[in-house]
Design a protein that fits this description.
four-stranded antiparallel beta sheet; mainly beta; single chain; globular
Amino acid sequence: QVQLVESGGGLVQAGVSLRLSCAASGRTISRYSMGWFRQAPGKEREFVAAISWSIGNTYYADSVKGRFTISRDNAKNTVYLQMNSLKPDDTAVYYCAGKLKPGVLSLSRAADSDYEYWGQGTQVTVSS
C-alpha cells in the first residue's frame, strides 16, 4: 500500500505562485505514473497534470498548460505541482493520485477512476 500526503495549499491572491507537494510512503513510487486532480465546489473532480514513471513524460489540462508544471523526485518519493500565475478559477481541493490500474494504457487520457492511490487533498484558494 502507498500513502499519499499533499501539502502546500493555501489562500493566495491571483497572479502568485504555489508549489504543492505529494509525499509518498509505504512503497517507492519511482515506477508509478503520478497525477494531480482538482475538485472545485459543486463540480466534478478534473484532471490537472500527470507524469509518467519511465522517462517523465508530462501531460496537462488545457486550462493549466503553460502555467503549471508537474515534476517528481524519486529519491524523495515526492511529486510536485508548481502553479504559477494562479487565477480564481484555480480554486479547488487538489488531490495527488498514484499508480495506474492494470490495463490502463494511456496516461494522457487517464481518469481519476484509473488511479489506485489517492491523497486526502489540499485546499487552494485564489482570491481576485
